[in-house]
Each structure stands twice: as structure tokens, then as C-alpha cells.
TrEMBL record:
Record PROSITE patterns: CYTC
GO molecular function annotations of the record: electron transfer activity; heme binding; metal ion binding
A Pfam short name: Cytochrome_CBB3
The Cytochrome c domain, residue ranges: 25-108
Protein's recorded name: Cytochrome c
Keywords: Heme, Iron, Metal-binding, Signal
Coiled coil (UniProt feature): none
Signal peptide coordinates: 1-20
Length: 109
């Protein structure tokens, strides 16, 4: 019986850790404000101020919902070679990029 409880407890802890690592990224409220401005100003300079398209394609929540948040994070961090989409990795963390991916998908708090 104790071994079963230990196994069950270990599985519960592992599940909690796995869920936490895939949940909304943790950014400070001030950083969230900075990231929102970055999306509007920097992303908006190519994707349009309302993100409905310009030099770059539209990146509105209804369109971004079809993309996995981790794929969007990778595009944000590494850019798209051969296109005008630059890599942002030198300027932000993975948590920042996940926050932006969630923001673009309409999923930020």
C-alpha cells in the first residue's frame, strides 16, 4: 500500500510539473505591458498597426488560433529564413515569446 501511494504521489507531482511548464508564461505585469507595446509597434510595423496585414501577413487572433503556441514562439524567436521576418531571440526570452504567441492567439489574461 505505501508503495502505491508513493507511486501515485510521484505521478501527481510529475503531472503538475508538466502542466505548469505548458501553461501561460510567467511575465511580470510591467513586462507584459512592454511586450504588448512591442507587438503593436514593432510587429505592427510589418503586419499592420491592427495586425490585419501589411508587408507581413495578418496575425489576428482568429488566424493565429490555428497555430500551435510553441510553433509561434519558435517563429518569433528564430524568424523565418528567406523572408522579412527577423529573429527576436537576441531581444527576448522564451517566456516573452510564449507570452506574445498567446497574446496573438487571444489567450493572455
Amino acid at each position: 500500500m505505501p508503495r502505491t501511494l508513493t507511486l501515485a504521489g510521484g505521478l501527481a507531482l510529475w503531472s503538475a510539473i508538466a502542466m505548469a511548464s505548458d501553461s501561460a508564461p510567467q511575465v511580470e505585469p510591467g513586462r507584459a505591458t512592454e511586450l504588448e507595446r512591442l507587438v503593436i509597434q514593432d510587429c505592427g510595423s510589418c503586419h499592420g498597426l491592427t495586425l490585419k496585414g501589411g508587408l507581413g501577413r495578418a496575425i489576428t487572433p482568429d488566424l493565429m488560433q490555428h497555430y500551435d503556441r510553441h510553433d509561434l514562439r519558435d517563429i518569433i524567436l528564430d524568424g523565418i529564413p528567406g523572408t522579412a521576418m527577423p529573429p527576436w531571440r537576441p531581444l527576448m526570452t522564451e517566456a516573452d515569446a510564449l507570452w506574445i504567441a498567446d497574446y496573438l492567439r487571444g489567450e493572455t489574461p
